Amino acid sequence: MRDDWQSRVDAVWADESLDDHAVMAAIDALAAERDADDPVALFERAGARDSAGEEAEAEVLYRRALELGLDDERQTRAVIQLASTIRNLGRTEEALRMLRCEYERLPPGGMRDAAAAFYALALVSAGEAETAASIALEALAPHLPLYTRSVAGYAQEIGERRA
Questions:
Q1: Most exposed among 16, 82, 86, 153, judged by the fewest C-beta atoms under 10 Å?
Q2: Backbone angles phi, psi at 140, to 5 degrees
């Protein structure tokens, strides 16, 4: 069962009536209920800034949350979100390193597929569209109702061409 604090945070994120700055203010108010160095609160504050287009502020908070330690799922989410933020700040090579590491570390499915999506975006930003297509198709293939084997094969073929 989720704790009350996290439920309130989730409710803020789910409230479509709030604009980005209202979300940031609400998340900051909830984060203030916890220790200043609470990694989960820092992660939530970073995400709110990221969503509001305040990437430079988000980067600092993501890095601090990761430094202090997060549970496995939030760790992956923080790495993906930080890498996406860094890519948006023009540091594509750093984002690629982070995303490649996270993608390769995770087991197939779930969060690996999320890492694959952002890894593919960073690869496109780096001018590596074929590699991006291979990574994205590899992640997509298991979710298709038909053609799983074919799409996986094409993803592998594209990947081999780039190797």
A1: 16
A2: -75, -40
